[in-house]
Automatic annotation (TrEMBL):
SUPFAM superfamilies: Rhodanese/Cell cycle control phosphatase (SSF52821). It holds the Pfam family Rhodanese. It comes from the Bacteria. PROSITE patterns: PROKAR_LIPOPROTEIN, RHODANESE_3. This is Rhodanese-like domain-containing protein. Residues 39-125 form the Rhodanese domain. The lineage of its organism: Bacteria, Pseudomonadati, Bacteroidota, Flavobacteriia, Flavobacteriales. InterPro entries: GlpE_sulfurtransferase (IPR050229), Rhodanese-like_dom (IPR001763), Rhodanese-like_dom_sf (IPR036873). PANTHER family: FAD-DEPENDENT OXIDOREDUCTASE, PYRIDINE NUCLEOTIDE-DISULPHIDE OXIDOREDUCTASE.
Length: 128
């Protein structure tokens, strides 16, 4: 069963990575994000989940902008700094790719966090 889950996760990552490469979006992992959060002060963390999802927990210091909001780009332009990289996550990784594409078109330096908040929770729970 564990091998099956690892295989599914690998397939998901490959397809997400391929889609991101088509849109020239850079990907990162939650492990890399953890290192960045500890060492780099000039990053912005963007949570693009719905308010209901965010109420279940967020990554510390994340800026929340619902990707489904009609004024997503307008809010992003007001809340985010184009001189700092933006690391984007959602629940599992699909919406963050879509949000990353939209932000890249606005001139942001964007990184999609593979696996989203689900992988972040798994990673941080194994590090305790």
């Amino acid at each position: 069963m564990k091998k099956y889950l690892v295989f599914i996760a690998l397939i998901f990552t490959v397809f997400t990575s391929c889609k991101s490469q088509e849109n020239n979006i850079k990907n990162t992992t939650v492990a890399d994000l953890q290192l960045l959060l500890k060492t780099e002060k000039k990053i912005q963390l963007l949570d693009v989940r719905t308010p209901e999802e965010c109420s279940q927990g967020i990554i510390k210091d994340a800026i929340m902008i619902n990707v489904f909001a009609d004024d997503f780009e307008e809010i992003a332009l007001k809340k985010l700094d184009k001189t700092k990289p933006v690391y984007v996550y959602c629940r599992s990784g699909r919406r963050s790719v879509a949000a990353s594409v939209r932000l890249k078109k606005q001139g942001f330096d964007v990184y999609n966090i593979l696996g989203g908040y689900i992988d972040y929770q798994k990673f941080t729970s194994t590090k305790k």
